[in-house]
Design goal:
By secondary structure, the chain is mainly β. It has a domain at about 45-160 and about 205-270: Immunoglobulin-like (Sandwich), CATH 2.60.40.1190. About 0% of the residues lie in helices and about 50% in strands. It contains 1 helix and 46 strands. The strands form 6 sheets. It has a 24-stranded antiparallel beta barrel. Strands 2, 4, 7, 8, 9, 10, 13, 14 and 15 form a 9-stranded mixed β-sheet that branches.
């Protein structure tokens, strides 16, 4: 295959511009780059862990946020918190005390967060799982298997919200949400493969209070919400954030380059008497809806009534069986729309509760490829596919992380046949932050010869505290596709206080086809290099992060010149972080797109012919202090794009009033001028939230997209019980704008679910 001559916008001066930009953008380490007080390189290995002690309470404390119960009087105090930010290694600016007691049912944690200026405490939005980095907060991490890689996280803010999630593989992992979108609560945009699964919801409760000396939190975490083995010594850490100072401190000190999820820096928690009583619970739901699919030709509204639910049985203390029947996810928030000017698929995060329990146990892949992506089950072209039922066994057996999943979906009117999905995953945590694992992923259709299988193995090797090597390999089996059906990935990463970097290589055969995974492209070799230098000035800036990265996709497809460069980017940037959290990014990109066949940009009639297109663009990002009552987040990419140029501008304005109200206005605008034609895309949205209590809320999301040619509205009322159950009322309306004229779909859904314990407490 032959290609037209390269059409670029700066390729001849590539070397000169690269040198010039590096000189301009990379600040001299000698200019205001001295470390601030207490800032230093960490030891080669974590210090000996500090120890915390939990004691049995004669009478359980009442969880009301007022820490006056007798149970707290005799409990040992965990205190002397150490800063991670802004002055790592220095004592925290405010005193924090943590006490822990337990009974046969649960663990109770009391937190005294003293504050010399209580009027300046920032409570944050009053809704479950809001982004706690923009408020004062306390987070607890329990490494219950003491393997230094997996943990349960529970947290709260002065507003008394429930915040929880699961850590897998030290917070590393694939599945990260790479697209746009906005959400004032910023619920973690990460799929099942993410290293921190914030969308997991456990069954526990917390209460807070405030007075003239600070704020206080009282947690109750049932033992049956956790999973653990026979070792009664757990890894444990506590972090506290004082948002007005942009300060984060830890009970067990963590170096600046790591986070709460770096569990080998956690302390040791002793004294717990771990019970085992087989837990059994059922969570039935009732649903009534009325809906009309105008786009599908329906002439009237259909009424629908559904019953179904889930059940959970604790087989051992570390292993859980979950079953689901007639599964429905009507209460799940809608996806944020995204602009797509590329020839590749967009990634949307998994939010459905059934797929989130122990999701990290099923994660395999990484580096832009999720070999198991649960949104492939029960969703077709953005529409729900009925799930007949299924089950999952997940947890820990004999030192192995184990995950087994079986789900059956029904056929659809659009012609999709019923399918059965199976996933088997096993992994073993090893010393020195290392692990090894394997996976089998299978889809079986109802028709003969309709199947797809993926076999995979992966591993990680920790070398000291700074170096990490990860690798995986996989092969797929698909009828009609033979040869070049395998893929490999290898990444070598560095993380120190002053330097971050990685080297990565990937190969994807053109017939590699993980149908139950997420993969943007196949048939290529991929190379990447990245290096960042962290500078910590004494004043003005909290941190300056000059960095450079380069990646290239080299074709290995039949009929395409071997090594043809499909995509490449040189990125040169500096991040300027201010003390209050305001941040600016000033960078340049040299982009190359090689088209081996014509490409029609989605939502337009513009077709770009085969060829190679390259050139420079300016990339700017800026946001103000996002904990303030009014904040602004913006970005711009201006420069060459394919055969012409692009001006891409985006911004989000957020307004908050106390803990009860927030609203955001978002605009994403692209003005593209090409030799083949010009077009403009506009994506606008308004997000509104009113939070009556931490468990009762009203939210709406209105979105307008010229690329999708739709105007959509989603309104959700929720009255939560435990673990994401409760009453939900959801209204959806989709209208066409131009070619899609008039209503496209409307629905009103009322759903109620409730969890009942049938075994255990």
């Amino acid at each position: 295959m032959s290609f037209p001559t390269t059409r670029g916008h700066g390729g001849r001066s590539f070397g000169f511009l690269t040198a010039s930009l590096l000189a301009v953008l990379l600040p001299s380490a000698g200019v205001h780059a001295q470390d601030g007080p207490g800032q230093h390189e960490p030891e080669e290995a974590p210090p000996a862990p500090i120890e915390g002690l939990a004691v049995r309470a004669a009478q359980a404390p009442v969880v009301d946020g007022v820490l006056d119960d007798a149970a707290w009087n005799g409990a040992p105090v965990m205190t002397d918190f150490v800063q991670r930010e802004p002055f790592d290694g220095q004592p925290a600016s405010e005193r924090t005390e943590v006490r822990m007691v337990f009974d046969d049912e649960a663990i109770y944690i009391g937190v005294w967060a003293w504050d010399e200026d209580p009027d300046a405490i920032i409570p944050g939005d009053r809704i479950r799982d809001t982004e706690v980095s923009e408020s004062d907060a306390v987070l607890l991490a329990f490494d219950t298997y003491h393997d230094y890689q997996n943990a349960f996280v529970f947290g709260t803010t002065p507003a008394g919200i429930e915040y929880d999630g699961q850590v897998a593989n030290e917070g590393r992992g694939g599945g990260f949400f790479l697209g746009g979108g906005f959400n004032t609560q910023r619920r973690m945009q990460s799929g099942a493969g993410g290293g921190f699964n914030k969308n997991w919801d456990g069954s526990w409760n917390v209460a807070t209070s405030r007075d003239g000396e600070g704020w206080y939190a009282e947690f109750r975490i049932p033992f049956n919400t956790l999973r653990y083995g026979t070792d009664s010594t757990w890894g444990f850490n506590v972090s506290r954030q004082i948002r007005r100072r942009n300060e984060e401190s830890f009970w067990s000190a963590v170096p600046r380059e790591f986070s709460l999820y770096r569990l080998n820096y956690a302390g040791h928690l002793t004294g717990l008497e771990l019970p085992f009583r087989r837990l059994g619970s059922v969570t039935p739901y009732m649903l009534g809806s009325t809906a009309r699919d105008y786009a599908g030709g329906q002439t009237s509204f259909d009424q629908n009534y559904e019953f179904g639910g889930e059940a959970k049985l604790q087989i051992t203390q570390g292993l859980t069986l979950d079953a689901t029947y007639n599964t429905d996810f009507a209460q799940v928030e809608v996806d944020d729309q995204q602009v797509n000017l590329t020839r590749f698929s967009l990634l949307f995060p998994e939010k459905r509760p059934f797929f989130l329990e122990n999701a990290g146990f099923f994660a395999v892949g990484g580096g832009g490829a999720d070999l198991f992506f649960s949104r492939r089950i029960g969703i077709e072209n953005g529409r729900q596919v009925p799930i007949a039922g299924g089950g999952r066994v997940s947890g820990r057996v004999a030192g192995f992380n184990v995950g087994l999943l079986q789900i059956a979906t029904e056929g659809t009117d659009s012609g999709q046949d019923p399918n059965a999905f199976s996933v088997a995953r096993v992994a073993r945590e090893l010393p020195n932050r290392s692990r090894i694992g394997a996976a089998f992923i299978n889809r079986d259709g109802s028709a003969s010869g309709d199947y797809n299988r993926t076999y995979a193995a992966d591993g990680q090797l920790g070398i000291g505290e700074a170096w990490t090597m990860t690798a995986w390999g996989a092969q797929t089996v698909t009828p009609g596709l033979t040869g070049r059906d395998w893929a490999v990935d290898g990444t070598f990463g560095l993380t120190t206080r002053k330097w971050r970097g990685n080297l990565q290589y990937q190969y994807f055969g053109e017939n590699f086809n993980p149908e139950v995974g997420f993969l943007r492209r196949t048939g290529h070799n991929y190379y990447q290099v990245f290096l960042m230098h962290n500078i910590h000035p004494r004043e003005i800036f909290r941190e300056i992060r000059p960095h450079v990265s380069y990646f290239t996709f080299r074709s290995d497809k039949t009929g395409v010149e071997p090594g043809f460069e499909e995509s490449a980017r040189l990125h040169i940037d500096t991040h300027w972080e201010f003390n209050d959290g305001m941040e600016a990014h000033t960078g340049m990109n040299w982009n190359r797109e090689g088209l081996y066949e014509p490409f029609t940009i989605f939502g337009t009639d513009v077709t770009v012919p085969a060829g190679t297109y390259d050139g420079w663009e300016t990339q700017l990002r800026f946001w103000t202090n996002e904990s303030a009552k009014v904040s602004f987040n913006s970005g711009a990419n201006i420069g060459s794009f394919l055969s012409g140029s692009r001006r891409s501008l985006n911004g989000t304005l957020t307004v908050r009033s106390g803990s009860s109200f927030s609203t955001s206005l978002r605009l994403d605008y692209n003005d593209v001028t090409l030799e083949e034609g010009d077009f403009v895309t506009t994506l606008a949205g308004v997000n509104f939230g009113y939070f009556f209590t931490p468990r009762i809320y009203l939210q709406s999301l209105v979105q307008y997209s010229t690329q999708l040619d739709t105007f959509s509205a989603n309104v959700r009322f929720g009255w939560l019980n435990t673990a994401g159950t409760g009453l939900f009322i959801v209204y959806n309306d989709i209208q066409g704008i131009q070619d899609l004229h008039g209503p496209q779909g409307r629905s009103l859904i009322v759903k109620f679910s409730r969890q009942f314990n049938v075994l255990g407490g």
